[in-house]
Amino acid sequence: MQFTAKQISEIVNGSIEGDGDAVVSRVEKIEEAGKEGLTFLANPKYESYLYTTGASVVIVNNDQVVERPVSPTLIRVKNAYTAITLLLDQYNKFRFHKTGIEEPSFIHPSVQLGEDVYVGAFSYIGEGVKIGDNASIYPQVYIGDNVKIGAGSILFPGVRVYHDCVLGENVIIHSGTVVGSDGFGFAPQEDGTYRKISQIGNVLIENDVEIGANTTIDRATMGHTIIRKGVKLDNLIQLAHNVEVGEHSVIAAQTGISGSTKIGKHVILGGQVGAVGHITIADGSQVQAQSGINRSIEEPDLKWAGTPASQFQNQMRTQVIMQRLPDLDRRLDQLEQLVKKLKEDK
Description:
The protein is α/β, with parallel strands linked by helices. The protein contains three helices and 40 strands.
């Protein structure tokens, strides 16, 4: 695919300095870009590459000062980082856009497919499934009975969506993720065994959610496990039954959330955070990586760290004190020896 600088400037609402007919065919880093490369400059750390890059077109901020001649065409925009993000999104849409039904695949006769839907080879789509316009179901995807998938959603190879789950519009799910597997529900018996509790709920994923690879989201015991609109989940995350994640929250890799925990809006959880079940995490909470949340966080917009998690500043003071413990222990030993000597000298 090739685009001219003029076409790109129209997409990002920018102004051109140089040759508007300059052609680009790929997006590259500014320090590595070559002929027909498109790149951007948003970080002053990379400013020197503006004068040495081999790129044909560079997107820069409106206030970027050019101190000497440059060879590429410049496109000035309000925010270069936002502009390149928009272009990458458009590039991916062109790159991954497919339509039609590949064979072999199984699609139950009752399935309702919207317009321009793509279904890859070796996929299985069960009875009563509804898939919206422009959705993409890549090869080897399993979609169970009565699943609903909104327009523009993308399920990459190997995704599994169990029966009765609901996905909104523009949902992206990466390879290996499982949506709607049984929650971890077992009732202890008098003889020491465990009896399985049937999980009869589902998973509800709202619009504009993205879920990384190899993440698992358990179906509710009853009712719904809910991922609200705009949530971004990393790879290798475990969300247990009846968990609710609030709008526009972000959760990093290897985080585990136990059953029935409610996460508020705009929450950020770092990697390997763990949370016990049946608690709430307030709107705007930020939790440092590897923290353990063992009780509800009720006050919004605070930072937390440590295990068990405490407010960030308190945790930083605790870490400083812990680093001093060996020295304090040595000094205490010296004081004990001094007291002992004083007693002996009496």
